[in-house]
Amino acid sequence: MDAKLGVKEIVSVIALWFAALVFVGLGVALMIWPTEILAGVEVRFDTPTAFADIRADYGGCILGLGVFLVWCALQRHLIGAGLLCVGLVFSGYSIARLFSLAVDGQPKRIIFILLAVELCGAFIAFGVSQWAPQSGSRSAG
């Protein structure tokens, strides 16, 4: 029988569920309302081809990631891997935004807010991934 989870392990599980639900929700929202959601970052599109690509690249990919995170959250031995995935995704977003700052110039304030959220998300995900239940944890103690 599996051992009970400690406080740190519970925090890691909650963090992964939170990330999973955010990614699922954002993915669905981006598929349904891409124009409204992406207006703040000045992404514009007006053809069926552009909508199809935006819905797939933003909505579908993020939704797929969210579903993967739900799957990880449902399997105790994959909680750490799911959190590592979240940290890597947020790190990728952060690196891309920093690269854009270096080569494209000064964006609007929203980009700095998103960058801060992504850096914090990466830091938190990597940190709490260290608390995730270990696959070999089968006894209390």
The major β-sheet equals: none
Structural class: mainly alpha
The tally of beta strands, per DSSP, is 0
The span between the termini is 13 Å
- How many domains would you count in the coordinates? 1
Rounded to an integer in angstroms, the radius of gyration calculated over CA atoms is 17 Å
Helix fraction?
over 70%
Oligomer type: single chain
Count of alpha and pi helical runs: 5
Tertiary shape: globular
Strand portion = under 5%
> Mean of the pLDDT scores?
93
Q: Could you state the order of secondary-structure elements as H and E?
A: HHHHH
Flag low-confidence runs. Answer: 137-141
Characterization of the model:
- The chain is mostly helical and 141 residues long.
- The chain has helices at 7-32, 34-38, 48-73, 79-104, 109-129.
- Mean pLDDT is 93; it is low at 137-141.
What's this entry about, in short?
The chain is an all-alpha fold.
Comma- or semicolon-separated keywords:
141 residues; single chain; 5 helices; mainly alpha; 0% strand
